[in-house]
Amino acid sequence: LQCIEARLAEATLWRKGASERREVMDQARLLADRTVLLKRTSLEVQLMLDHATSSQANLVYGGGDTELHHPTALMVLPYRLAPNKRGKLTPMTKADVELAEQVGLHVLHIRKYLAFYRALAAASDQGAAFVAKMILWCSKLEEDPDNEDVILEMLEAMSLDGSTYYSNACRDMMLLAVQDGPDKLLMDPLCYAKREFNRKVEQVCQICHGKKVYLYLVDEVTGLPLVYHKKKEANAALDGNVDP
Question: How far is 20 from 17, CA to CA, in rounded Å?
Fold first, then answer.
């Protein structure tokens, strides 16, 4: 009797395993049927992917074997958005418009700094040669912090123009390296650029501090927050109204 019970238990386990294996195979077959292999994407799609929020976040906070796996297509704003008569999303009050201008200015600086960061990351991929130049530029700036030729030389090496914004971003980053010592550049050429980026993000967070904030999902194709406004009673729930 014990032998029969054991065989029945084995048969039950086998059937369960077989059922699970069939389910996995069915899922794999379904996925294969719905998968289209592309040799390469179009330029438009590739640019969209390169500038998606997930790509930007991985650029700064990822790197190497580190890859972010949490949502990045969202935004937190200290004001509520609603469609105007033309269907464009705008703040609801005059005070919110002024607040939006402040936030927008900081976000614009962050976007510009990301362009600087991408150029620095690409130049750093050249290896030890570029890092050695960075240390040399640090030593020159230590002697003369106002040496504009050093900044322009570095921007040229990064394939960036000498505009005021890039010059200031480059100078601020390099003066941090001068202050702390350039040794950290040997370990991570982007360490001071990351610090500056985080400081700019903190400036935006300071605007939101102590205020009621709203969480919005962002459409990565259009770059716009998603607001459901067909029913007034659904607005508050879907706007993602959360406490600070």
Answer: 5
Task: Say how far apart CA 189 and CA 38 lie, in whole Å.
Answer: 35
Lowest mean pLDDT among 45-54, 146-155, 186-195: 45-54
- For 142-185, the pLDDT digits (tens) are 889 889 999 999 999 998 887 888 888 898 888 888 888 777 88
The Cα 204–Cα 216 span in angstroms is: 16
Query: What's at 167, amino acid-wise?
Result: S
| Angle, CA 177 vertex, CA 173 and CA 179 arms, to 5° | 115
Burial of 194 (0-12, 13-18, 19+ CB in 10 A): middle
Q: Hunting for tokens 């999303």 — which residue is that?
A: 89
Contact 148, 140 (CB under 8 A): no
User: What is the separation of C-alpha 209 from the centre of its chain, rounded to a whole number of angstroms?
Assistant: 21
Residue 102 CB partners (closer than 8 Å, separation 6+): 207
Q: Measured between alpha carbons, how far is 69 from 109 in angstroms, rounded to an integer?
A: 26
Find the Cα–Cα–Cα–Cα dihedral 213, 237, 73, 100, rounded to 10°.
-40
* Contact of 216 with 240, CB cutoff 8 Å: yes
